Amino acid sequence: MKIFAIYSSKGGVGKTAGAVNLSYSAAQCGHRVLLCDLDAQGAASFYFRVRPGKKFNGKKLLQGGLKKFIRASDYERLDLLPAHFSFRNLDLVLAKLEEERRRLALQKLFKPLADEYDVLIMDCPPNLTLLSENIILAADSVVTPVIPTTLSLVALKQLLKLFRKVGAKEKRINAYFSMVEPRKVMHRDMIAQYEQYAIFRKVQIPYLAEVEKMGLHRQPVAAVSPASIAAKQYTSLWLEIWNRSIGG
User: Where in the sequence is the domain holding 17, given as residue range(s)?
Assistant: First the structure.
């Protein structure tokens, strides 16, 4: 099982859109996929119309035995571990664990799922916390959307700093430009300056109405508009990230 974390310390960069659409693309490519919604806001869960069970919360998440909390989506080969509002306190729960377990709690939780799924994708909250360290250490690949603006690039530099702090290898980062508007000079200039760096993937996600309308349809873009540019770009992005992950 390959684990992918859709993560950035900055909000509003397209993390949840990425998690939802990449999960759908992976399932459409034939993989057995589990999307774990770790953001207390539960946007990914909202898009897939899935609610957590009444007995599920942040403490139960970290206790393990996740299979009983997983829910099927409306799409073949795609399941969801829904978010719970109590996830906002996950850092407090992690801090109470023994020191040697604190940063590896998620890694331990996901191991029993390895025979059930080919791909596990985490939709992550925009934090720089103990949970963030857990996410990085549990993931085979950290997929980070970057809007071609100054603050989004600052968030990318924070991610690189966090990778160094926990001793993770930077080659596990898959950055991609998100919400790109080619008519904007800043976007064109930023992309031209940074796209040659090894952590950036070639595929870019444009700023398009189809992605904005996900909140209305509560479905992945490709489920509503399979022939749209947005759907094709997310599929291409998934294939680029997946092929890189299996290529070492």
Answer: 2-246
